[in-house]
Specification:
The protein is built from twelve helices and no strands. The chain has 279 residues and is an all-alpha fold.
Amino acid sequence: MTKKRSLGVTLAAMLVYAFLYAPILVLVVFAFNDSRTNVVFEGVVNRGPCGPFYWFCQLADNRELLNAARNTLTIAFTSTLVSTIVGTMAALALQRYRFPGKLFSEAALYIPIVIPEIVMGIGILVLFSTLFRFLNASLGLQGDSRLAMGLGTVIVSHIAFSVPFVTLVVRARLHGFDKAVEEAAMDLYANEWRTFWRVTLPIIAPGVLSGALLAFTLSLDDFVITFFTTGPGATTLPIYVYGLLRRITTPELNALSTLWITLVFITVFITQRLERRMG
């Protein structure tokens, strides 16, 4: 009976992994497809000096793609840095202090997580449009408020929906925190700032890293909110890929997705190694 159950669990696990990762494997394989239509795999491509990596070399010559990749990474790194700092401070404040409006602040954290992204995207768009119209009226300027949107508005939007995720992850780490360790550091004449850097932050660092990784991945693959808040010259990779899908789909898109998946896996691997060392 035990062996049958073990076999059943193994088969179930294999089916789950196949369901999750088979599409990714097919996507990677088709990045080396010789067919330009990319509907049927017609063999491994072997063109020019790049050989089987022909479609990857095509990516390197695509200026629009490189600009979109640069914008995406700029937005992701900037929003992750800011949201991690703000989210960590918010988690410490909510976990340790009592202040007016604390219950409202805790409930408000779940709003960006629960509501559909399209609703949040429309709300942020209306907010920015109203703000830009007010500034134009105050300065006596004229122009389309949509043209004023760019990397700055996208970064602010990503920070807005990433902070709640970071706060909740860091706060979960703080639930098991022993304040006696901080008190011992202060008994040894460490001030609050030194205690935070030498004691508190190293202990909660795995939670901070997890929150930062979550914010980074959310920013990388966000489409809906970015679509509503982007402007000229601020196209990100998800927006660029959406534009490609409306035209002919070539293995160049698979090559792009393969590089993106590799980047995400490397980021996750490095983060897990850091968490193990700190944990």
